[in-house]
Specification:
It contains two helices and 15 strands. By secondary structure, the protein is mainly beta. Bound molecules: calcium ion (3 copies). The site of one calcium ion (CA) has 8 residues, from strand 7 and strand 15. Keywords: Signal.
């Protein structure tokens, strides 16, 4: 009985500590991305579910699934992690006539996004200041995202306008109409090593290629 109680108490403490913000400090393959500039959404931190990210399911629905494991970098990219990742393809998939801004091909992106999911990025912020937040994306519905710095919300809910096009009769391609929003909103960032969190707030159904931070 006593051992059981002790185990339950330990589990409770572990559970409580998981809700406090803890910087993982572990950028993807130790190559931290920097601001100003682009933050590739697929290069999120290492550490797994609950530490580096929260995803609705443990499966990577892109790498190793939609894109079968075949020994290639793009198909197998982080395929054993819960964040869902695919990449832009030709043959009228991502280079289709419904793009607002044409994407480059073979660009990895985070997809299968759902409200409540989040992803951490340990970054080097080279200059303090106010930045515009851009995003290369697709959005099936009007979605919203939000950003934290070191666990504190630094943005409003940012509207990611739908790229749905009624004229496209290929249903699955509604998730492949790319656009680049130059300024979804603004954030104030402080200099140094920080952890940025990208939250999917509402709607989901978005694909994130990269965030872009430009100093105002
Ligand atoms: Ca998943
Ligand atoms: Ca997901
Ligand atoms: Ca990308």
């Amino acid at each position: 009985m006593k051992l059981t109680s002790l185990l339950m108490l330990s589990a409770l403490f572990i559970g409580v500590s998981a809700f406090r913000f803890v910087s993982t400090g572990k950028p993807w393959q130790t190559k931290s991305q920097s601001i100003p500039g682009r933050v590739q959404c697929e290069f999120y931190d290492e550490g797994g579910e609950g530490v580096a990210y929260h995803d609705a399911d443990a499966v990577n629905n892109g790498s190793g699934k939609l894109n079968p494991a075949n020994g290639t970098y793009l198909n197998e990219f982080r395929m054993n992690e819960g964040v869902d990742i695919s990449y832009t393809k030709g043959k009228d998939i991502d280079n289709n006539p419904y793009n607002t801004v044409a994407p480059e091909m073979d660009q990895l992106y985070v997809g299968w996004t759902q409200p409540g999911e989040w992803i951490h990025y340990t970054l080097q912020i080279k200059e303090a200041g106010t930045y515009t937040v851009g995003l290369m994306y697709t959005s099936h519905d009007d979605g919203t995202i939000a950003l934290d710095l070191d666990g504190k919300r630094i943005s409003k809910d940012l509207l990611v306008k739908s790229t749905y096009a009624a004229g496209d009769t290929i249903a699955w391609r509604q998730w492949h109409h790319w656009n680049k929003a130059e300024a979804l909103g603004e954030v104030t960032l402080s200099k140094g090593t920080h952890v940025l969190t990208l939250h999917t707030v509402a709607a989901g159904q978005m694909n994130y290629d990269y965030l872009e931070f430009k100093k105002r």
